[in-house]
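Support request, please re-run this one:
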Amino acid sequence: MWLVSADVTGERDGTRLGLGPTCVIDPAGRAVAQVPAGTTGVAAAEV
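Re-run finished. Output below.
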């Protein structure tokens, strides 16, 4: 089973902090595409 995880990055309302990461994980548990924590971007992989 593939897993696609999308998250947020940055400070919200001065009290919450989102660090990501957004990633695509293959059936073996390997991250095949990932946006580094604390940055913005797009993770894309062929599923």
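The two ends are 10 Å apart (CA to CA). The chain has a mean pLDDT of 87.
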